[in-house]
Write a sequence for this structure.
């Protein structure tokens, strides 16, 4: 009861904020030219990875290889922001395929230092800390990288605004440390209406496009423009992964203590509905 | 058949003949620029040969690529900052090349490592996934760390780095095998930037079957441009030596050139690719095409007297030679046409076009040559006369032939005994023949490719691949399907229910449409569709949809044979046994991936280098493997539905015998150690395909040889209207073939592709001599009414014609000996031997036998 009341208050608050944002948006459109590439990216980062203070979603990935063979993965993501554009906690609970059911990833995302990552494998009954040399490893065999799921740190790239039209900005991002990535640069389109990236194309050393992220469906969920379906394609062989979200919820009031090792072995069922 | 009229026409209207030949030749010449070279040994099997279809299916299913293998071999240790940085730079440059499949390239700086995360106290904190060598180390310790890491990764150890630490490899996958020569050349060029005089301790090598094959094609092309004209030149010089009369010998050269150009032009024009076999057509046809002309010229030169009318003499000569020439041409053609009975497409094309070429050469010879001779100027003919007299005076050939004649007639019994002994010895030799082939051995031992091949296979587990593919036998779905349908039937009608029924109907329809291949009902696509329905369906329907989903998922899980620990353990045992047996350098498989990741997920110690206890454990281990930079690597070893798995065998030789041995060993192993589930196995990979087509070649050649033997035998009896002479005519070639193959057996030369083809050639060519010999003997016997006199007359002009022919063809093939490609050398050497041997056998055995038979007839 109490929680319900609390969330009602929060909704009212959100409504007020939304109205203000809409008013502001009219303003920003007028002043849009004045936004720097870094500012646009910051807004995009906020829109894509920090909607609400926390959230949950069911995700489904369909991985399609170059022969057209499909594989499916399903998982639930719980996220909690420590601070907008700052550190975040994440839990990823796998439900399908059934032979990986209850596999859990836990992430403490840090913007100023390396992330902490843990893994729980039920069949081997082990929790392990994972350390990775970089964040551009595949997320469970899909075309999404770990970084595509958790969000690439804007400090890693230098941005320049290439062009803009009535609907979008086109920004070129060049990695500061080329050694940490497999691409040479990428070009990202960001919608002016909701600041969500709509497309990112990654180019190799010969300026050939090799990888592409496309947003296929956006839906407004409690005031947050949310990517519901997106696809990453390997342009060298046209294999791809589609990621769809369902039951997206924001500001659900996830308690701090569920982002712990305990939750990995004993999933917080109430939050996974 | 009225040849007389044709002959008269040719002599009366030589220009009509000339223009017709010229026109057809030019037309064919116009086709030659459309040439398409094909060097793929895979084409030794027809496109729909089951082994080839399976091989290509596996290549697609498991995304197996054609690989170029680049190797650096050091005199000392390769784990130094310097060498590792060379490999890093070389790899990065190779990655930029067009036609290279980047994501599948294997090299130290693009592959992943999985290790324990330990702090300075040795305390374990977790696991690390990272590039094995993102950048080459700058210190010796750094290099040693890489060495240590590789040793712990069974997939890389002895594949990317040799066991003796002296060699390092880059596996370069390419989009198409016909680009391998170009890409290999580019890599060779790049390597010069890194491996130069300063780094003398490093040797650069490049190998892999695609490179060998494509390079072979390139050199074959060069060979065709060099060897065929050289053969032409050799024949020209030889004819000049015999006849000393340029205008006269131009005629046979024209016949040879026209034949070769028309045949090659029409082969290309008809859209056939020029394969290694067909590239030899020119070289084969050239000598064969001049044979008949040499007969005509020899006899013309013998008969022509100063003051004679050339056209009359020609008519006489032609009247005389027409029948034996027709028969020798048909029999030679039959020998080659019989190659069309083999199941090997390039051999069929080879046989068909040479057979036709022989008939074409015959037609050209009987029209063009008389027309040409009849038009020769009197001075030229006088010259010819002089040359001929000189030839008869000096005649070292003539003298030795006479002596040979005397010997053959007098020593009949000794000769017969000697031949019987030789025959027995040859049969023994044939039983010793080793059937073996290896496309890399098509290059000479000092060829760059052979040297690289040897160097890399000395260090690594092997650069030759075979794939052993296991699959479950299509698990029975009927129970699960009826469970699914029963569950569904209990549900009351709704939009969702109709949608599920539609799914079933669609599947049933696809079943009836595609009866050839039963498609399973339970698939990932079904799961995705059911999941979509759940997403849209109202809450009230969630429960039963979930139930259907679970039935389907369970049915799918039941088919995932290759996550079953019992099966994986069985595969691990097979793999160990294979390597222990010694014929296989290394096996790479799903089991290695599972065991390595499992070891690192657990303690990192060897005791955990094992398959997890449960299927779920295996699946979760593999989910971790896929969280790497190269998740796609997994799908080279198991299909995404886990119903098929591939074992990649590395072997140190591409010998078919080696492969056959491994195949047989695996059969035995599986028979005595049956797998714990119903799985079947099948082979693929280039090394295996080579075995398949070689088997087809051997049995095909036996069929072809037997059938042409019978056809030729029947033709001989028809020609001579006598069983006795029919049998006699077959004896020289029977002896020659037996002796040639006996020799091959005794010398231990492997029975390979070129050797196999020779049988048909021997048959087609050596029968010629017998026909001419017997035909003339019988004529002379009639004339003189005495076999003895006939035989001694035989050792005058007729035997010279036979010998000249044998020598012309034998020498005509010798330019092949200069080739850097072994099949050409083999063919050149054996053809020359066959010609000489069959001429000798004819000249020795036939007179001896005829004399013996004659004396038995008299005594009887």
């Amino acid at each position: 009861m109490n929680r319900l009341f609390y969330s009602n208050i929060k909704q009212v608050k959100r409504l007020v904020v939304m109205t203000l944002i809409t008013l502001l948006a009219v303003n920003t459109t007028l002043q849009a030219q004045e936004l720097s590439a870094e500012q646009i990216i910051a807004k995009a980062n906020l829109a894509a990875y920090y909607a609400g203070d926390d959230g949950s979603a069911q995700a489904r990935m369909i991985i399609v290889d170059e022969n057209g063979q499909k594989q499916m993965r399903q998982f639930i993501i719980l996220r909690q922001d420590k601070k907008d554009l700052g550190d975040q906690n994440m839990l990823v609970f796998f439900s399908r395929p059934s032979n990986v059911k209850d596999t859990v990833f836990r992430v403490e995302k840090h913007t100023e230092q390396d992330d902490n990552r843990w893994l729980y494998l039920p069949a081997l009954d082990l929790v392990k800390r994972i350390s990775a040399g970089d964040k551009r490893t595949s997320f469970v065999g899909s075309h999404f990288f770990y970084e595509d799921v958790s969000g690439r740190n804007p400090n890693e790239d230098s941005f320049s605004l290439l062009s803009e039209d009535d609907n979008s900005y086109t920004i070129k991002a060049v990695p500061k440390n080329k050694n940490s990535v497999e691409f040479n640069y990428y070009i990202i389109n960001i919608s002016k209406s909701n600041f969500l990236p709509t497309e990112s194309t990654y180019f190799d050393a010969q300026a050939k496009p090799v990888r592409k992220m496309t947003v296929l469906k956006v839906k407004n969920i409690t005031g947050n423009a949310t990517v519901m379906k997106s696809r990453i394609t390997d342009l060298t062989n046209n294999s791809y992964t589609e990621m769809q979200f369902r039951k997206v919820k924001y500001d659900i009031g996830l308690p701090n203590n569920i982002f712990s090792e305990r939750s990995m072995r004993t999933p917080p069922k109430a939050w996974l509905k | 058949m009225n040849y007389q009229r044709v002959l008269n026409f040719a002599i009366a209207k030589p220009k009509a003949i000339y223009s017709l030949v010229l026109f057809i030749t030019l037309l064919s010449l116009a086709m030659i620029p459309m040439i398409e070279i094909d060097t793929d040994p895979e084409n030794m099997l027809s496109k729909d040969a089951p082994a080839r279809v399976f091989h290509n299916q596996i290549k697609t299913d498991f995304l197996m690529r054609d690989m170029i293998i680049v190797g650096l071999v050091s005199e000392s240790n390769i784990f130094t900052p310097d060498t590792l940085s060379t490999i890093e730079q070389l790899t990065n440059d190779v990655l930029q090349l067009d036609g290279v499949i980047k994501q599948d390239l294997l090299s130290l700086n693009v592959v992943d490592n999985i290790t324990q995360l330990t702090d300075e106290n040795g305390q374990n904190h977790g696991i690390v996934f990272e590039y094995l060598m993102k950048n080459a180390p700058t210190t010796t310790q750094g290099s040693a760390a890489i060495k240590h890491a590789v040793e712990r990764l069974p997939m890389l150890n002895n594949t990317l780095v040799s066991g003796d630490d002296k060699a390092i490899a880059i596996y370069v996958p390419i989009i198409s095998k016909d680009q391998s020569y170009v890409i290999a050349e580019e890599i060779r060029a790049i390597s010069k930037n890194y491996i130069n005089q300063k780094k003398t301790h490093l040797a650069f090598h490049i190998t892999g079957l695609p490179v060998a094959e494509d390079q072979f094609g390139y050199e074959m092309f060069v060979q065709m441009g060099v060897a065929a004209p050289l053969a032409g030149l050799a024949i020209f010089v030889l004819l000049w030596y015999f006849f000393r009369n340029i205008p006269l010998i131009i005629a046979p050269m024209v016949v040879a050139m026209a034949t070769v150009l028309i045949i090659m032009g029409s082969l290309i024009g008809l859209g056939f690719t020029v394969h290694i076999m067909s590239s030899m057509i020119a070289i084969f046809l050239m000598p064969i095409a001049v044979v008949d002309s040499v007969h005509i010229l020899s006899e013309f030169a013998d008969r022509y007297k100063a003051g004679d009318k050339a056209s009359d003499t020609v008519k006489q000569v032609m009247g005389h030679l027409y029948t034996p020439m027709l028969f020798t041409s048909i029999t030679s053609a039959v020998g080659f046409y019989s190659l069309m009975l083999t199941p090997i497409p390039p051999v069929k094309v080879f046989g068909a076009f040479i057979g036709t070429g022989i008939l074409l050469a015959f037609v050209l010879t009987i029209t063009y040559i008389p027309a040409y001779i009849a038009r020769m100027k009197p001075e030229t003919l006088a010259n010819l006369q002089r040359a001929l007299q000189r030839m008869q005076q000096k005649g070292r050939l003539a003298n030795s032939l006479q002596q040979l004649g005397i010997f053959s007639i007098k020593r009949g019994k000794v000769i017969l005994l000697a031949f019987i002994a030789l025959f027995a010895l040859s049969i023994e030799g044939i039983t010793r023949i080793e059937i073996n082939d290896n496309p890399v051995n098509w290059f000479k031992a000092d060829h760059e490719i052979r040297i690289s091949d040897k160097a890399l296979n000395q260090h690594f587990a092997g650069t030759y691949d075979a794939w052993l593919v296991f699959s479950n036998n299509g698990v029975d779905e009927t129970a699960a399907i009826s469970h699914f349908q029963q569950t569904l039937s209990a549900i009351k009608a709704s939009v969702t229910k109709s949608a599920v029924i539609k799914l079933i109907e669609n599947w049933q329809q696809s079943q009836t449409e595609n009866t050839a291949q039963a498609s399973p009902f339970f698939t990932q696509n079904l799961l995705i569709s059911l999941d979509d329905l759940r997403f849209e369906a109202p809450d009230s329907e969630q429960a039963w949809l979930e139930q259907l989903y679970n039935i389907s998922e369970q049915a799918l899980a039941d088919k995932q044979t290759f996550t079953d620990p019992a099966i994986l353990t069985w595969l691990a045992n097979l793999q160990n046994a294979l390597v222990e047996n010694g014929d296989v350098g290394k096996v790479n498989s799903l089991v290695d991936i599972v065991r390595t990741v499992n070891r690192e997920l657990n303690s990192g110690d060897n005791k955990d280098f094992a398959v997890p206890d449960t299927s779920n454990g295996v699946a979760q281990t593999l989910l971790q493997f896929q969280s790497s930079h190269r998740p796609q690597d997994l799908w080279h070893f198991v299909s995404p539905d886990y119903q098929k798995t591939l074992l990649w065998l590395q072997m140190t030789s591409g010998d078919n015998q080696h492969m056959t041995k491994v195949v047989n060993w695996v059969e035995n192993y599986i028979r005595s150690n049956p797998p714990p589930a119903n799985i079947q196995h099948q082979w693929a990979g280039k090394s295996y395909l080579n075995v398949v087509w070689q088997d087809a070649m051997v049995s095909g050649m036996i069929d072809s040889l037997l059938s042409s033997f019978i056809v030729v035998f029947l033709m001989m009896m028809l020609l001579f209207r006598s069983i006795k002479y029919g049998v006699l005519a077959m004896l020289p070639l029977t002896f020659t073939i037996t002796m040639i193959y006996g020799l091959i057996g005794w010398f231990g030369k492997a029975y390979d592709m070129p050797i196999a083809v020779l049988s048909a050639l021997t048959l087609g060519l050596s029968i010629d001599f017998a026909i001419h010999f017997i035909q003339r003997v019988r004529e002379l016997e009639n004339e003189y009414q005495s076999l003895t006199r006939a035989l001694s007359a035989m050792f005058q002009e007729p035997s010279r014609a036979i010998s000249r022919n044998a020598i012309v063809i034998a020498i005509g093939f010798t330019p092949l000996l200069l080739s850097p490609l072994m099949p050409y050398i083999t063919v050149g050497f054996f053809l020359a031997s066959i010609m000489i041997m069959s001429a000798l056998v004819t000249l020795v055995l036939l007179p001896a036998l005829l004399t013996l038979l004659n004396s038995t007839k008299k005594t009887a």
Q: What stands out?
A: Chain B touches chain A through 52 residues (CB under 8 Å). The beta strands of chain B are 66-74, 112-118, 124-131, 167-174, 202-207, 464-472, 586-588, 644-651, 679-684. Residues 822-859 of chain B form the longest helix (38 residues). Chain B is about 65% helix and 5% strand.
